[in-house]
Each structure stands twice: as structure tokens, then as C-alpha cells.
Design brief:
Low-confidence stretches: none
Structural class: alpha+beta
Protein name: Succinate--CoA ligase [ADP-forming] subunit beta
Organism: Sphingobacterium deserti
CATH architecture of the largest domain: 2-Layer Sandwich
Pfam families: ATP-grasp_2 (PF08442), Ligase_CoA (PF00549)
EC number: 6.2.1.5
Enzyme class: ligase
Bound molecules: guanosine-5'-diphosphate, manganese (II) ion
CATH superfamily of the largest domain: ATP-grasp fold, B domain
Length: about 400
């Protein structure tokens, strides 16, 4: 699960990670008030107005703007709130901005140099260890750094039992070229960051940039935090940070019906029980000359309700030319599923595309008979080969 920058910074602060301070706003008026408060609390004359969407690269898309006075704050906020922000990570349609973070300007000039670093914490599944990945090349596209100057990306492995050791944090600060107070600050920053990652059961932290200010403070200018969804039950307060406005609406609806749905670009919708069977079915669709329009796993309990919810979701996709239902009846009997399909069909009414149902397992023959006798525009099959041939046939018209 992904969250917004402002939420991520709130969590990091709770663990003693220094962040670029900011205040959330939903209107230009609130943005101006936020700027006034930042002036009071942090003596920040300039502020940055930052679009809050679940995607990076906001700066490149015009979603992060410096404002030097209240008129500019008002103007930037007016421009950014409500805009359809397109970044390298949103896809061409972009994402609508509902909220902005008005943040203190931390790039203020001074005698010593300002520096931008990259720091992330993630799980290396192959090694079974957490990794702190870091680079002197912060503020830019890390994929580009990895491609062009891979020697500038460092990795530190952390033993999950022992946790991050002091010498490791000092090595990181050293490799980032820091000495004196900035070195100390970085050691504190890395230690607190790792503690936060570990405690909240995150699957990814990406802080780009981490900034060394002109007065040698180390702070998170940006914060991307992903939670491990399998551990969210341990953190009810974090689960509440979910913003469904940022997620694909069809996928949210599917999740609410306990369906595991991922939209794809093809023309044959499929409804299956079990992820393995779903993959096999997608292969079958390809072999039959179609392209899967989705991945949809109805799970262990394929009944009229889940089948109906699945139909409704698949039918929202205008590219769908046929639907293939491929259910293995083990615990769930095939005739029950067949009845579910028939009930759902009758309830939804006129389904505009042909449906092919392949039921195999307990009571498969009874199920086929139910479908064949239903008088509906549903083709039935028992063997996968028959189902594939039917898909080919209906696609050809
Ligand atoms: P992203 O584009 O979505 O990764 O958003 P970031 O939070 O990383 O901000 C993008 C860029 O905006 C940063 O790399 C900085 O160059 C710039 N930026 C962020 N905060 C400030 C600030 O306080 N002052 C100035 N001058 N620039 C900032
Ligand atoms: Mn960033």
C-alpha cells in the first residue's frame, strides 16, 4: 500500500527523522495560511507548493513549485489544486491533484554547499535481508544513475536479527562524502530511518532527495513509503492512511467484493478461481488468438454473488469481446457455480458479449447440462481445449 508524501513525512517525524516541514492544504486560502504559519514556526520566507499524488516525478510535471511571497503561494496553489498532473510515473492521462503540501524552502543559500543524496530502504528477497541503497547522485532519476553511473550507487545489507549497526551508518555517511556535523547528522538520519522502516513493516522507503542544507542539517525533502500489505493487520492506524482516490476505481470495487482483479489491455475477459489457473487461462486465451483483458481471481468461493460482481467488473471494460469463465470445482461444486453464472446472467440482464464457461471437477457434467439447458447465450465446455476453440470461434464472430 502506497501513501502520500505528507503522510509519510508525518510517520518519519515520529521516529525522529528530520523532514522538510510542511502543512497540508486543500484550497489556495489554506495554502496562504500555511505559508504564514511556516514563517512563524520556522522563519521560512519562501515555500514550495507540492502536489500530493501517489506518483513520483512531480517536479518534472510541474507539480512542485517555489513561491516567494503570498501572492505567489496563492497563484501556485490555484494552478496546482485540481490540475491533471502528468509525470513520468502517472501514464499519459495523469492524476488529479486534490491536496497540496505547502512546505518550508530548505534550499536556502549559505556558505557551505547544499547537497542532494538518494537513500532508500528495501527488502532483498533473494538475500532475505533489508538493504539500504544510497547515492551521492540525489534529486534525479535513480534509474538513470543506475544505468549511466552504477558505481555511484552503494548498498548496505542489514542483518534483520542484529539490526542496523553503528559502524554501518557511519560507513554510509562516510561514503556520501560527509564529515563533521553533517556526518553526525547523517548517522542519526540513517539510524532513525532504518528504525522506522523496520517498525512499521514497510516494504519500501525511498527518500529522494535527502538534503544537506547549507547549515549542515540532513533532512528528507521527499518521502515515498510503501507498506507490506500482509503486515497491515498489525497497524490499523496506518491502514487508515489508504487513499482510494489514488487507486484504479475498478480495482477498488473488486477488492471490496474480495476479488483479485488487475486490468489488462486485451479483448477476452476472464474469471477464474486460483492464481495459477488464472495464469494458465491467460495463456489459453493467447493460444486461442485473443489477448486477456484482465486477471480476475474470484478465490475459493465462486457463488452467484462473486460471479455477478466479477461480470459487472469485466463488463465495465469496453474492449471486452468475450468472457471466459474457467473454474475448477474442488471444494466448490461445479453445478453450484453453473447456477451462480445463470443467476448472475439473469439478474444483470442482457450481457452484450458471448460467454464461455468451462467447469471441471466435482459435478462437471451436471454443470454443463445446467448451462446447456438454460437457454442463455452461454457456451459450455469441460475440456480446456474445447474452451479455447470456443474462444477462437466467438472472436471470429
Ligand atoms: P518529485 O519530483 O515527485 O520527486 O518531488 P520532490 O519532493 O523530490 O521535489 C522535486 C524537486 O523539487 C526536488 O528535487 C528539488 O529540486 C525541488 N524542491 C523540493 N523542495 C524544495 C525547496 O524547499 N526549495 C527549492 N528551491 N526546491 C525544492
Ligand atoms: Mn523526489
Amino acid at each position: 500500500m502506497n501513501i502520500h508524501e505528507y503522510q509519510a513525512k508525518e510517520i518519519l517525524k515520529g521516529f525522529g527523522v528530520r523532514v522538510q516541514e510542511g502543512i497540508l492544504a486543500e484550497t489556495p486560502e489554506q495554502a496562504v495560511q500555511a505559508a504564514q504559519k511556516l514563517k512563524q514556526d520556522f522563519n521560512s520566507d519562501w515555500v514550495v507548493v507540492k502536489a500530493q499524488i501517489h506518483a513520483g516525478g512531480r517536479g518534472k510535471g510541474g507539480g512542485v513549485k517555489l513561491a516567494k511571497n503570498h501572492d505567489e503561494v496563492q497563484q501556485r496553489a490555484t494552478d496546482i489544486i485540481g490540475m491533471q498532473l502528468v509525470t513520468p510515473q502517472t501514464g499519459a492521462e495523469g492524476k488529479k491533484v486534490h491536496k497540496i503540501l505547502v512546505a518550508q524552502d530548505v534550499y536556502y543559500p549559505g556558505e557551505s554547499e547544499i547537497k542532494e543524496f538518494y537513500v532508500s530502504v528495501l527488502l532483498d528477497r533473494a538475500k532475505g535481508r533489508n538493504i539500504i541503497m544510497y547515492s551521492t547522485e540525489g534529486g534525479m532519476d535513480i534509474e538513470e544513475v543506475a544505468e549511466k553511473t552504477p558505481h555511484l550507487i552503494f548498498k548496505e545489507e542489514v542483518d534483520p536479527k542484529a539490526g542496523l549497526q553503528g559502524f554501518q551508518a557511519r560507513k554510509i555517511a562516510f561514503n556520501l562524502g560527509l564529515s563533521g556535523p553533517a556526518h553526525k547528522e547523517m548517522v542519526k538520519f540513517i539510524s532513525a530511518l532504518y528504525k522506522a522502516y523496520d517498525t512499521i513493516d514497510a516494504s519500501l522507503f525511498e527518500i529522494n532527495p535527502v538534503l544537506k542544507t547549507s547549515d549542515d542539517k540532513i533532512l528528507a525533502v521527499d518521502a515515498k513509503v510503501n507498506f507490506d500489505e500482509n503486515a497491515l493487520y498489525r497497524h490499523a492506524d496506518y491502514a487508515a492512511l489508504r487513499d482510494v482516490l489514488e487507486e484504479d476505481p475498478t480495482e477498488v470495487e473488486a477488492g471490496a467484493s474480495n476479488l483479485n482483479y488487475v486490468k489488462l489491455d486485451g479483448n477476452v475477459g476472464c474469471m477464474v478461481n486460483g492464481a495459477g489457473l488464472a495464469m494458465a487461462t491467460m495463456d489459453i486465451i493467447k493460444i486461442a488468438g485473443g489477448e486477456p483483458a484482465n486477471f480476475l481471481d474470484v478465490g475459493g468461493t465462486a457463488n452467484a454473488e462473486t460471479v455477478k460482481a466479477g461480470f459487472n467488473i469485466i463488463l465495465k471494460d469496453p474492449n471486452v469481446k468475450a468472457i471466459l469463465i474457467n473454474i475448477f470445482g474442488g471444494i466448490v461444486r461445479c453445478d453450484r457455480v453453473a447456477q451462480g453464472v445463470i443467476d448472475a446472467y439473469n439478474e444483470i440482464g442482457d450481457i452484450p458479449v458471448p460467454i464461455i464457461v468451462r467447469l471441471q471437477g466435482t459435478n462437471a457434467a451436471e454443470a454443463k447440462k445446467l448451462i446447456d439447458d438454460s437457454g442463455l447465450k452461454v457456451y459450455s465446455a469441460i475440456l480446456l481445449k474445447e474452451a479455447a476453440e470456443l474462444v477462437t470461434k466467438v472472436l471470429k464472430g
